[in-house]
Design goal:
heterodimer, A: 891 residues, alpha/beta, 7-stranded mixed sheet, 20% strand, B: 412 residues, 5-stranded parallel sheet, 27 strands, binds flavin-adenine dinucleotide, binds iron/sulfur cluster
Chain lengths: 891, 412
């Protein structure tokens, strides 16, 4: 029996515990079998997993991995690669100063990796130019918490979700993005039927499934809603004046304007009764949680929206108690860990800040920093602008794919291409970002990495390795430390294992803390390697070994100098760029259920690639009608910044005037499928987080002259070279491509041979309609379907399912082969039998059947009915025999 | 039952068209006001046999007895006088009298001409040499078989249906067979280039050799034929030369007796000649400008002709749409209409080279106008129906090449 390794899921911020049992590996066959199950003892999920977590086994593969270091495309030894990175950075620093280099890292890193990267940049290179993709994800939430609490503290935990009486989901489709929490919520609502769920979202998402009330507010009007709520509470005498007086400050700064439900409903495009109902629920139900995510954060006023929400909790004193509070959820597995080490350019380390001189010198001392940065560095978008301006000349990107995920992504790609030195640490060989790299460093990934992550309820869990790193892949902390050593910081980066780093991280959090800072792991400073290995999930702060903290602010004290929480005066603002005649739609972007970020891993999993197979654009039927757009058609979406192609999905769940596209697709999986190419590079002035949820766009039908799909068995070892529209999904034994083109193709056979190499040598079947641009081909080897291609002048193509079923089989039958290019089974399983009339190819069973059912008595009858025997007539004796036999059989 | 007039029907020719017409006359006679005394004069010394089954006989797959359609006994049982091995030489239409080659004189009320056609003999020198044959009768088959027993090299001129069946049959009889054809592809009247190549490859696989784009200039030999010489001077060994380059309607008798003849005996839509008492049916006729060389049209003619002779009302015969198949064991093909198509037409093509399956449907204005099926003819009848009925196929266009079973409304 193989032993089970307890680790955590590397996807969303729920941070589920996962039990992994490694089964077998066979490199030559590209087989890595593991059994994955939810960890019943992990408090985040108690054994549950969502579709992404369950399919983790399908994402560990050999193919596609980056397994060797490369400098300018050439494979090199680690030593050489590390020297090249160190030399490159050193040269730039020597010539242009430390602010001319930067790290751009990721919530996918483990805390230990993150810690080392942050330490190197801020304490030794001497710049704070380390920012992370968490900037794109929850920096507004961080800003909101810090402004209100004096610290980046999530007050609640997952149990609160189950014990609250009113659960408000805003700016989150948690059914898809945080599925396990949604499962917990769904169960809680079943168990406690009085519990109310309200969804505030312009779209009618899957999360509305269990909602008692859906408020489809106008895009970007959340702050109006929550400031309105505060006014409503005040107007109805529902404020907790004691709490406001004793535990908060600046309440008097808050403008609480005169307010009417009708006017607010109008501002938010909501039904006034619905709005009032929601407000009255909030007023009456104390145990309420507002659960918010990207819909709040990814906005040019995201920080203010967060504070508008937090204000309502401070004003009602609903904080620090079970079942209530403003609950920001993170998107990534270790966004929280990144925040803890200070992995954002405007943080220092361990929840300390540059602005605090004392803290800065404490950290400097603690690290024995050689070149301590003194001020905030460049936030993601500013960082790329600085590259464009030539101010930043070397960048090291780790575990993230900014060319897909940054707004105005096409321009970001141009900028990155301009950068003098681009180092990329990645586990996958081909991403849109690795394509821009000068130096590629092979990093370990889930299953190989070993360290800790923190989930959205401040729970630190171990992510454990269960297999050796393949090829030359190394842990990120090792890679960073090796470069640090080459830059001359041997002693400071002389780590031997991740536990070394964790202890230092814990020690820093405890350093001169004395309860002054929320993030405090003083109880873990002395953790031994063995204890670290055996670490059970635990919620920080951990002031005594083994004792975590379930809930924050239970004593009404906060981490501001006065220990009082602060109200922030929020003046709601609309999104920066308004729709106009040229760009009449509001673009909204987000996740789909089964994909994760830029699909580098989920894209490998057949199970996850089935749900939604290509970029789509959800539009309301009204808009579809108005702009003559049809279901399944390809649409070209344009904004001032870029354009993309997506498949039309017409649904009344979408609001009129809005279009939703998924954020995941990129050049590895589709052609012009990058949603972020469209997104306006507008950021929140406080947090620097981009406004992903609101970009004015135009939509029109993209008119290809043909549509098609291609299914290729992996084993065939062939790929499609594509030069017009395509999107690709992994189907298990095969890759599925959806394709379309505007070019007129005369010779499809040649077209395909040029694009799918090797098919010309296979046993092929072909179908062609010369006028209609119908073309189909299937390729078979040893009775095994290897590939098929279907082309049509419209989107009406046969279903891919039947063919996919054949690709799952090791051989096909004669009948299946005959039906291959029909793309389906005829459903007719009648076997005509041995041919009797060869002139007209009429079989024995067909004749017997006709004799029986139609009461035929002479060969002539048969001839009339089936034509058999009416040409050469040589089968007439046999027909007579059949008649006689059937007759005998009947009597 | 009222009194029925008795009349004499004289039938010239004892082939498939004649006998199919007689069968219909026998079966419809009861409904008619006239009863006929039928006399059949046939130049071949047999009852009626299934001519198109000569190929399986030649190939050794069937015996002559297997392909007999009407034996002498059958004529007796049906009170029909058969004068087999006799030829009608002369007609006196004014007197309604026919004179036979043995001098016998027969009187008739109604006359049916079903004299079929004669193989076309290329006028090359040496065409009279022993061993130079045509392929039309059981005697031809028997002679080929006896030559095959003693000789090796067979040459078939003409790679049409008949020529290829002959070639296959002779190959089955153990001869080394060459096929000479003047066009670039075989069966070019029935197959498009692709299907023709597939068929040629198949036949080559059996050991048959092809000489394409060759014209024959002479048969040479001393006692009997020894070689065939092409117009380019090249020559190939030939102990047997079979000419299968087409047929000509046999209008000899009709012309002699002053009936209107062009490429065949001219008939109207009721198979009547320009003499009200003289009918004609089968390969010997020319109807609306067309002559036919296949059985399906003459079967269609036979029923109209029979009813007309009997004075029964009948639909007119409006001509036939042809289709072709090939009786070579192991080969399935089917061809009809405009199988090549042109600029204004469209084609749907299915091609499975590994299984030697190739199907092409030619379409114009949403109607099938031609078919070329090779290797899989299981839906030929259905396509033929769609073709003949000129059915609008736009609703089934995408799937019809895969067969009737794939069309919801059509699958039985
Ligand atoms: C080898 C072979 C294979 C064929 N295969 C096919 C096939 O697969 N499919 C198909 O559709 N068709 C086929 N055909 C063609 C088909 O056999 C003919 O279309 C059909 O037999 C014509 O019938 P008919 O009655 O008009 O002529 P015939 O069958 O030729 O009958 C005419 C008869 O009249 C006799 N005759 C002529 N003049 C006189 C006279 N003055 N007095 C008395 N008798 C006379 C002739 O001797 C002959 O017996 C094939 C033909 C041949 C030779
Ligand atoms: S993706 Fe999120 S909810 Fe799903 S298993 Fe992973 S951590 Fe849990």
């Amino acid at each position: 029996m193989t032993s089970v390794v307890k680790t955590t899921c590397p996807y969303c911020g729920v941070g589920c515990g996962v039990d992994v049992a490694p089964l077998d590996e066979n490199k030559t066959k590209n087989i890595i079998n593991i059994a994955v199950e939810g960890d019943k003892s992990h408090p985040a999920n108690l054994g549950r997993l969502c579709s992404k977590g369950s399919a983790l086994g399908e994402t560990i593969r050999y193919d596609g991995r980056l397994l060797q270091a490369k400098v300018k495309g050439e494979v090199v030894e680690w030593d050489k690669a590390l020297d090249a990175v160190a030399d490159g950075f050193e040269n730039v620093i020597a010539e242009h100063g430390p602010d001319a280099v930067a790290f751009y890292v990721s919530g996918q890193l483990l805390t230990e990796d993150y810690y080392v990267a942050n330490k190197l940049m801020k304490g030794f290179i001497g710049s704070a130019n380390i920012d992370t993709n968490s900037r794109l994800c929850m920096s507004s939430a961080v800003a909101g918490y810090k402004r209100a609490f004096g610290s980046d503290t999530v007050p609640c935990n997952y149990e609160d979700i189950e014990t609250c009486d009113l659960f408000i989901i805003t700016g989150s489709n948690m059914a898809w993005t945080h599925p396990v929490l949604f499962q917990r919520l769904r169960q809680a609502k079943l168990d406690r039927p009085h519990m109310k769920v309200v969804v505030i979202d312009p779209r009618r998402t899957a999360s509305c499934d269990i909602a008692d009330l859906h408020l489809p507010l106008a895009s970007g009007t959340d702050a109006y809603l929550f400031t309105g709520l505060l006014a409503y509470l005040k107007g109805n005498g529902a404020l907790n004046q004691d709490f406001i007086d004793q535990c908060t400050e600046n309440f008097s700064d808050v403008d609480i304007a005169d307010f009417s439900i009708a006017a607010l409903a109008n501002d938010c495009a909501l039904d006034a009764d619905d709005l009032e109902l929601f407000f009255s629920w909030f007023l009456q139900i104390e145990r309420s949680i507002t659960f918010y995510c990207m819909g709040i954060n990814q906005s040019s006023s995201g920080s203010d929206k967060a504070n508008a929400i937090i204000n309502t909790y401070l004003a009602t004193g609903r904080i620090g108690k079970p079942g209530m509070g403003p609950f920001s959820i993170t998107g990534q597995p270790n966004a929280m860990g990144g925040r803890e080490v200070g992995g954002l350019a405007n943080q220092l380390a361990a929840h300390m800040d540059f602005a605090n001189v004392e803290q800065r010198s404490d950290v400097e001392t603690f690290w024995s920093a050689k070149n301590m940065a003194i001020a905030d560095g460049l936030k993601a978008i500013d960082l790329f602008e600085a590259i464009d301006a030539g101010k930043v000349k070397a960048i090291w990107i780790m575990a993230t794919n900014p060319i897909v995920s940054l707004p105005d992504a096409d321009r970001m790609r141009q900028i990155l291409k301009k950068c003098e030195l681009v180092v990329v640490s990645e586990c996958m060989e081909n991403t849109d970002t690795t394509a821009c790299a000068d130096i590629l460093l092979p990093a370990t990934t889930w299953g190989e990495k070993d360290g800790t992550v923190t989930n959205s309820e401040r729970r630190i869990s171990r992510q454990r390795a269960f297999r050796a790193a393949p090829g030359e892949a190394r842990n990120d902390w090792w890679i960073i430390s090796e470069v640090a050593k080459r830059l001359g910081y041997n002693d400071e980066f002389n780590y031997t294992c991740s536990a070394d780093i964790f202890r230092e991280h814990a020690a820093l959090s405890a350093y001169k803390n004395n309860g002054k800072r929320d993030f405090d792991l003083s109880g873990m400073v002395d953790i031994s390697n063995a204890e670290y290995d055996a670490l059970q999930p635990i919620q920080w702060p951990v002031k005594k070994a083994g004792q975590g903290t379930a809930r924050m602010f239970t004593d009404g004290k906060f981490f501001t100098p006065s220990s009082k929480a602060r109200f922030i005066n929020v003046s709601p603002r609309k999104p920066k760029n308004k729709v106009n005649d040229e760009y009449p739609f509001i673009l909204n972007t987000g996740r789909v259920r089964d994909h994760w970020h830029t699909m580098t891993r989920t894209g490998l999993a057949p199970r996850l690639s089935k749900h939604i197979i290509e970029p789509f654009a959800e539009i309301h039927p009204y808009d579809a009608e108005k702009f003559s757009l049809k279901q399944g058609q390809l649409l070209e979406i344009n904004s001032h910044w870029g354009s993309m192609l997506a498949r039309a999905s017409i649904t009344a769940e979408q609001q009129k005037g809005n279009v939703f596209v998924p954020m995941h697709w990129n050049d590895q999986f589709s052609y012009r499928g990058r949603a972020d190419a469209l997104v306006n590079p507008v950021v929140d002035p406080v947090s620097g987080q981009p406004e992903y949820k609101h970009t004015p766009v135009s939509i029109k039908a993209w008119q290809p002259s043909w549509y098609g799909f291609v299914l290729l068995r992996h084993e065939a070892g062939i790929g499609l070279t594509h030069d017009s529209y395509w999107s690709k999904a992994n189907g298990g034994q095969f890759i599925r491509y959806e394709i379309a083109g505007t070019d007129a193709v005369d010779d499809w056979k040649k077209w395909l041979n040029d694009r799918i190499s090797g098919t010309d040598k296979m046993d092929g079947l072909f179908y062609n309609d010369t006028k209609k641009s119908y073309y189909r081909a299937a390729y078979v080897q040893n009775n095994k379907l290897m590939a098929c291609v279907f082309i049509a002048p419209s989107i009406d193509l046969p279903s891919r399912n039947w063919l996919a079923g054949l690709l799952a089989k090791d051989s096909i039958t004669v009948k299946e082969r005959k039906s291959l290019l029909a793309g389906r089974d005829s459903g007719n399983n009648f076997d005509p039998g041995e041919t009797i009339c060869s002139c007209f190819a009429v079989g024995e069973n067909t004749i017997r059947h006709a004799i029986k059912t139609k009461g035929l008595t002479t060969p002539k009858d048969i001839g009339k009915c089936l034509k058999a025997g009416t040409n050469c007539g040589s089968c007439i004796p046999e027909l007579q025999k059949l008649i006689a036999q059937e007759k005998a059989g009947l009597t | 039952m009222s009194y029925k007039e008795k009349q004499k029907l004289l039938v010239v020719g004892n082939g498939m068209a004649a006998m199919r017409t007689i069968e219909h006359i026998l079966s419809y006679q009861e409904a008619a006001s006239t009863n006929f005394d039928i006399t059949v004069v046939g130049a071949e010394p047999h009852g009626n046999y299934n001519r198109i089954m000569l190929s399986p006989v030649l190939a050794g797959e069937k015996h002559f007895s297997d392909i007999m359609l009407h034996t002498h006994e059958w004529y007796q049982n049906n009170n029909i006088t058969l004068l087999a091995g006799k030829r009608v030489e002369q007609l006196d239409r004014a007197e309604k009298i026919a004179t036979l080659d043995d001098g016998l004189v027969l009187h008739y009320d109604k006359l049916l001409l079903a004299t079929g056609s004669d193989p076309f003999i290329i006028p090359v020198t040496g065409k009279e040499l022993p061993g130079v044959l045509s392929y039309r009768t059981i005697e031809d088959v028997e002679e080929m078989q006896s030559i095959a027993k003693q000789h090796k090299h067979a040459v078939v001129i003409g790679a049409g249906v008949l020529g290829l069946e002959a070639a296959f049959g002779l190959q089955q009889q153990g001869m080394q067979v060459s096929v000479v054809h003047n066009a670039a592809t075989i069966m070019n009247r029935q197959l498009d280039e692709k299907a023709a190549c597939m068929l040629q490859q198949h036949l080559e696989g059996l050991g048959i050799t092809f000489h394409l784009e060759k014209n024959s200039a002479a048969c040479e030999g001393v006692e009997r034929v020894e070689k065939l010489v092409f117009s380019d001077g090249e020559a190939i060994a030939a102990d047997l030369v079979v000419m299968a380059v087409g047929v000509r309607a046999n209008t000899l008798l009709a012309e002699k007796s002053g009936l209107a003849c062009e490429r065949g005996i001219v008939v109207d839509d009721y198979l009547c000649t320009d003499d009200d008492n003289v009918y004609a049916v089968g390969e010997c006729v020319q109807h609306r400008g067309a002559t036919y060389g296949l059985v399906a049209p003459l079967f269609e003619q036979a029923v109209v002709c029979a009813k007309n002779i009997l004075g029964l009302s009948t639909e007119p015969y409006l001509g036939s749409q042809l289709y072709t198949s090939l009786k070579v064991t192991g080969v399935n093909l089917y061809s009809a209409g405009d199988f090549n198509g042109d600029e204004s037409s469209e084609s749907i093509i299915y091609d499975d080279p590994a299984n030697q399956v190739y199907k092409k449907i030619v379409i114009n204005n949403n109607r099938i106008i031609g078919l070329n099926l090779y290797g899989d003819i299981s839906d030929a009848v259905w396509y033929q129906d769609l073709y003949q009925q000129k059915k609008d196929i736009s609703g089934m266009r995408e799937d019809m090449i895969f067969g009737k079973a794939f069309i919801a409304d059509e699958a039985a």
